[in-house]
């Protein structure tokens, strides 16, 4: 969902290039170790919205570096404000299109990719825009480590079914699947970090679909 333009958020991104990259040149590799000041494992959320999920993870896992990838500059600014307010040194914001993922992250550089409540693009002619379409999966496979994981959540049953089929056709292995995440075993529910959309949908009784998948080793 597109957010209403907030000039202060756009300005904040421009004022903090050390914490937020606004559509960087894809031809120039980003030195993430230099930006974070360490070489801790990197996890990416693609489509971070207002950032509730990624900032919560960053707060509770200082041993990991997180990148919030968000195409809307206003949303990037909202996440950046939370980062600055909470002093999250292990969070960077990347305002860019996920179609250029490999240009922004080196091969085998990322341990986990989160896809939370992505746009379902329900019309068949828009299939290539879905973040679980095969061309996106190919990008994820390049940047993930050999044991890297994709974690996917949605409230859209159609996108979930499509994603399961797309990942299966790509030859991926499923470590976890659920058609009602909030009614799984207690330990799974307690470990789950909610997004803004997830909290809204779950509070209305809508099921949350979830899967964790890995790429099989290349022959």
UniProtKB/TrEMBL annotation:
Q: In which pathway does it act?
A: tRNA modification; N(7)-methylguanine-tRNA biosynthesis
Give the binding site residues for S-adenosyl-L-methionine: 45, 70, 97, 119
Where is the stretch described as Interaction with RNA?
A: 125-130
Any one Pfam family match given in the protein's UniProt record, by short name: Methyltransf_4
Q: Which reaction(s) does the protein catalyse, per the Swiss-Prot or TrEMBL entry?
A: guanosine(46) in tRNA + S-adenosyl-L-methionine = N(7)-methylguanosine(46) in tRNA + S-adenosyl-L-homocysteine
| Function per UniProt | Catalyzes the formation of N(7)-methylguanine at position 46 (m7G46) in tRNA.
Name the segments for region: Disordered: 1-26
Q: Report the sequence similarity comment from the record.
A: Belongs to the class I-like SAM-binding methyltransferase superfamily. TrmB family.
Bias kind Basic and acidic residues: ranges: 13-26
CDD domains cross-referenced by the UniProt entry: AdoMet_MTases
**What EC number(s) are associated with this protein in UniProt?**
2.1.1.33
One GO CC annotation, please? Answer: tRNA methyltransferase complex
- What's the protein called, per UniProt? tRNA (guanine-N(7)-)-methyltransferase
InterPro entries referenced in this protein's UniProt entry, alphabetically: SAM-dependent_MTases_sf (IPR029063), tRNA_(Gua-N-7)_MeTrfase_Trmb (IPR003358), tRNA_methyltr_TrmB_bact (IPR055361)
Detail which positions bind substrate.
123, 155, 195-198
| Gene Ontology molecular function terms on file | tRNA (guanine(46)-N7)-methyltransferase activity
Q: Which UniProt keywords apply?
A: Methyltransferase, S-adenosyl-L-methionine, Transferase, tRNA processing
